[in-house]
Amino acid sequence: MKGMRHMIPGLPIPALWLGLAGLLPFLAMAGATAAGLPWGGRALAAYGATILAFLGAVHWGLALAAPAPGPGRFVLGVVPQLVGWVALLLPLRPGLALLAVAIVATAAAETLAARAGLVPMAYLRLRWVLSVGAAGCLAVAALAAR
């Protein structure tokens, strides 16, 4: 546990553990999809869309807490949810692929926000670790989906 503090300086240990635990459903459902289980892909798409909505909500909250938020903060707070919803309306393969791209694109937008001092660097570091893991699982499932 002591070494965990140094993985991402400034990040509370519960955020690290809970963030990493959030990858478990991605891994399990991508595995289920690859194994041909009929529920795996849809369950993964629903989870991915939920996570994408969560990512947007983070920025909505940060925008509301800021003294003078620009409109871009609110856009980053709303667009991920809309993309997640569209992904659920698509056929499974393109929906999973869209979720993978959207999760990475949200992290890229957060990188720009961090450069402007709008997102804590510890959060950004964790987000990239989680985004790569989630997007990788979504991409594998998109390729494996039938």
List descriptors:
146 residues; mainly alpha; 0% strand; 6 helices
Task: Write a compact overview of the structure shown.
This protein is 78% helix and 0% strand.
Could you explain the architecture of this structure?
The chain has 146 residues and is mainly alpha-helical. It has one domain. It contains six helices and no strands.
Please work out how many helical segments DSSP would assign: 6
Structural class determined from secondary elements = mainly alpha
Describe the main β-sheet briefly.
Answer: none
Give the low-pLDDT segments.
none
| Global Rg | 16 Å
Total E-strand runs: 0
Helix content: over 70%
Please report the distance between the alpha carbons of the first and last residues. 41 Å
Query: Average pLDDT, to the nearest integer?
Result: 92
How many domains? Answer: 1
Please indicate the percent range of residues in DSSP E strands (runs of 2 or more). Answer: under 5%
Order of helices and strands: HHHHHH
* Form type: globular
Transmembrane segments: 44-62, 126-145
Pfam family, one: DUF3429
Keywords: Membrane, Transmembrane, Transmembrane helix
Organism: Falsiroseomonas frigidaquae
